[in-house]
């Protein structure tokens, strides 16, 4: 058996593994008080879909589109190949599996993100603000939560 196929295979593996990834990470929650941010009674949503989009700022051409799904604790981790420093990128809510909490929360339904190595962070992980869907009917405990936060 020739060594050439083995060397060729190893060179292909080397090329594939040399690609760098940045990992966009965040959580999706159910805003159980309908106030626009997480509280002690917010619930993390498993199975929620999020999407990362990057557009060319001049032409508005779509350059990147990747979808991800949250795990059992509401976390998503989406690997993004390459550097997208020159593009306008956003992560946004797509869909909630919860019928009682499936309306995107205005102001917490998307987040602008930087997908670049050129930000002075040595880690390849980028933490994104939580994204939220609003529940149809606020929980009874929300009155106490609003008082604790001095919003009522």
UniProtKB/TrEMBL annotation:
GO terms for cellular component: extracellular space. InterPro entries: Allergen_Ole_e_I_CS, Pollen_Ole_e1_allergen. Residues 1-18 form the signal peptide. The keyword Disulfide bond applies. Keywords: Disulfide bond, Signal. The keyword Ribosomal protein does not apply. It comes from the Eukaryota. Coiled coil: none annotated. Belongs to the Ole e I family. This is Pollen Ole e 1 allergen/extensin. The lineage of its organism: Eukaryota, Viridiplantae, Streptophyta, Embryophyta, Tracheophyta.
């Amino acid at each position: 058996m020739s060594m050439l196929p083995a060397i060729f295979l190893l060179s292909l593996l080397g090329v594939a593994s040399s690609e760098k990834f940045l990992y966009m990470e965040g959580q999706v929650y159910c805003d159980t008080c309908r106030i626009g941010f997480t509280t002690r009674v917010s619930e993390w949503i498993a199975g929620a879909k999020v999407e990362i989009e990057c557009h060319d700022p001049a032409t508005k051409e779509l350059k990147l589109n990747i979808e991800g799904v949250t795990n059992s604790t509401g976390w998503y981790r989406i690997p993004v190949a390459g550097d997208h420093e020159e593009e306008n990128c956003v992560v946004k809510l797509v869909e909630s599996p919860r019928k009682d909490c499936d309306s995107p929360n205005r102001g917490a339904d998307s987040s602008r993100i930087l997908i670049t190595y050129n930000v002075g962070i040595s880690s390849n992980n980028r933490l994104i603000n939580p994204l939220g869907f609003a529940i149809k009917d606020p929980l009874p405990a929300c009155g106490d939560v609003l008082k604790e936060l001095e919003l009522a």
